[in-house]
Amino acid sequence: MTATWFSAPAPVTRRVRAFFAPVNRAAQTPILFDPSEQGQFNLDAPPAPWIDLGWVQDFVRKAASKSSPLMTGIPAAPLEQVRETLEAQVSLQFLSWTKLTMGLATGSQHMNVLVPTSGTTPAADGAQAAAAVTPQSGSTSTSIPMATSDAAKFAAGAIIAVDVDYTGQTGYVGTPVAGTYVRQALTDVDYVRRITFNVALVSQATATGLTLAAPLPGGAPAAGAKVQAVAGFVDREGGSFYQEWSALFVMEGSQGERIVFHYPRLQTMTGAEEAISSLNQKNQSGQSRVLLKGLFLALPVTDPLDGERVVCYRSFLPAANALV
Amino acid sequence: MQNAKDSFYMALRTRLTTVNPERTILLRGAVRPGILVEEAEAPFSQFPNDVFVLRWLGLAIDMDLASTMTSEQCEVVYQTCGTQSFGGLDRGRALSAMDEELMAMIQPFYTAKLNYVTTPPSEMLTQVFWDEPVFSPIVTQRDQLSRSATVLVYSYQEQAE
Fold first, then answer.
1. Max intra-chain CA distance, chain B
2. Which residues make Cβ contacts (< 8 Å) with residue A300, sequence separation at least 6?
3. Which residues in chain B are contacts of A10 at CB distance < 8 A?
4. N or C terminus of chain A: which is more exposed, having fewer CB within 10 Å?
5. Residues 6+ apart with CB under 8 A from A272
C-alpha cells in the first residue's frame, strides 16, 4: 500500500522575510495581497509593487483587540462576547540598513542627505544641494540617460535620488511613494528629492547616462523628475508625519508550507531606535551589530467580502500531501 | 531514519558536483564526488585527505507530534595537507576552500526525502531539513589541517517507514 499523505506537525521555520509596499496616502489605498494567486511567489522576486526588505528577526505579532462579555440575567452571566476595540501591533528588527528599512524604522519622514554645492551654510538636514540634473527621455527604473556633461557629475558607486522639483505643493509629496506630508508651502526646490524613496545605487556611469544596481522603488522616473547625488540619510526624533505601508511577512516551513501575514496598513509607532547585538556572546564589549528596531500599529481596512473591519490577514498554504 | 540519512548525503553529494566538480575520490575502483559516509565504507585506518567524510552520531526522537520527528547529528570531517605543487604551504587555503564548499553544499537547508532502496529512488512525501553547521576549531597534526562541522538533520517518519 502506498501512502499518499502524512500528518504534518506544526510548521518548523528558520526565519521571517519582510516585504513592504507603499500605501497611496492621498487615496488611502493599501496594497492587497492575494494568497490564491500570489501565495507561492518567489521570495527573491516578489510581485510588484512589493519590495523585498530581506530577513528580519525578533518578529512578534501582538493582538491588542479587546473583547468583553455581554452579561444578562440574575446573577449576570455572559450571553455573548462583543469586540470593543480592534488593534494589533508588530515589532521586529531589520537585519540591514537601507533607505527603506531606515524609513520604516523611523517615526517620521526619512530624508536623503543631498550632496551639497560648495560654500553653503551647514544645515542639520544637509546643506543646499548641488543643482539637480534633468535626465533625457527614455529613462527606465534601472537606466537613466543623460547628456554627457550631466553624466560626468556622477560616478559608479554613487547614490542618487530621482524625483520632481518642489514647487510649493502641499499635502502628500513624493513620487510615487509619499515621503511626507507638507502642511504649508516651503522654499527648498530640492525638498521632494530630500524625502523621496526613489533612490538607487549607480552601478555604471558612462557618457550617455547611468545604469542602476537595483530598480528605483517608484519605477521609471516621473515626468519632470530630476536627479541628485545622495551622500547619506538622516531622520529626526519628532515631527508630525507617520510612515504608512502595506506589509507582508512570510515564514517558509520545512515541508514547503508557508505562513503569510498580510497587514494592509501598518504605521510606524515609535521614533528611531536601535538594538545592539554583540557578535560574540562571550565578549559583550566587543564588536556589536546595530539593528534597526521597528514597531508598527496595524490600522483597519474594510474587507469587501463581508464588510468586516480587520487589521491583518493570516494565510496558511499547507505542504504538499499534508493532512489538513 | 535511513531514508533521511541517505537523502542528506545524496543532496550534499549532488551539490558538491556543482560547487566543485574537481573534488573527487577514487574509491573501490570508481571515481566519485569527494564525499562519503564513513559507516557505508570499509573501515579507514585514517581519513582520506581533501574529501568530506560524514559520520552519523547522536539521535533524538520526538514522538509527541502528529508525525514522529527524528533529529540526527551528522559530523562532517575533512582534512588537507595542501598540494604538492606548493609543498603544502597552501594547506590553509585548501582548508578554507573546503569550508566554503561545505557552506555552499549545505544550502538550501532542505531536500526531498527519497527512498534509495528502490531503483530508481522513489520520492517520499516529506522533506529532510537541517540547521546551520557548527564548525569546530582547526586541528593541526604536523603538516595536516583538519576540521569538523556538526549539522542536526531533522526528518519526519512516514507511514511507509
1. 56
2. A86, A265, A309, A310, A311
3. 65
4. N
5. A102, A105, A106, A107, A235, A237, A292
Q: How many residues are listed for chain B in this entry?
A: 161
Per-residue pLDDT tens for A271-290? 899 999 999 888 888 999 99
Which residues on neighbouring strands pair with residue A258, listed in sequence order? A252, A317
Partner-chain contact B67 A6, CB within 8 Å: yes
pLDDT digits (tens, 9 = 90+) for A82-93: 999 999 999 999
Q: Do B156 and A2 touch (CB under 8 A)?
A: no
A50: cell is 512589493
Determine the Cα–Cα distance for residues A98 and B158; give it in Å rounded to an integer.
Answer: 44
- Output the pTM of the full model: 0.90
Could you tell me which of B131, B113, B108, B133 has the C-alpha nearest to residue B123? B113
- Give the pLDDT mean for A65-72: 94
DSSP A298: E
Asked if A8 lies within 8 A of B129 by C-beta distance, the reply is no
ipTM for the assembly: 0.85
Domains and CATH numbers, chain B: 2-156 (3.30.2000)
Interface touch A7/B67, C-beta < 8 Å: yes
Angle CA B134–B129–A45, to nearest 5: 100
Q: Which residues of B touch A319 (CB under 8 A)?
A: 126-127
Question: Going by DSSP bridges, is the β-strand pair A51-63/A13-22 parallel, antiparallel, or unpaired?
Answer: antiparallel
DSSP secondary structure letters along A6-40 = B---S--EEEEEEEEEE-BTTTTBPPP--HHHHTT
Torsion of CA B42, B44, B49, B54, to 10 degrees: 70
Instruction: Compute the distance between CA of residue B30 and CA of residue B36 in angstroms, rounded to an integer.
Output: 13
In the chain, the amino acid numbered A52 is: D
pLDDT digits (tens, 9 = 90+) for A92-144: 999 999 999 999 998 889 999 999 998 889 999 999 999 999 999 999 999 99
Chain B contacts of A252, Cβ < 8 Å? none
Query: How is chain A split into domains, by residue range?
Result: 13-68+80-106+242-317, 111-235
Write out chain A residues lying below 8 Å of B154, CB-based: 12, 254
pLDDT digits (tens, 9 = 90+) for A153-204: 999 999 999 999 999 999 999 988 899 999 999 999 999 999 999 999 999 9
Min distance B66 CA to chain A CA atoms (Å): 5
DSSP B10-75: HHHHHHHHHH-TT-EEEETTEEEESEEEGGGSPPPSSPPTTSEEEEEEEEEEE-SSSS-EEEEEEE
List C-alpha distances in Å: A97 to A101, A180, A243, A276: 6, 20, 17, 13
- Please name the amino acid found at residue B56: W
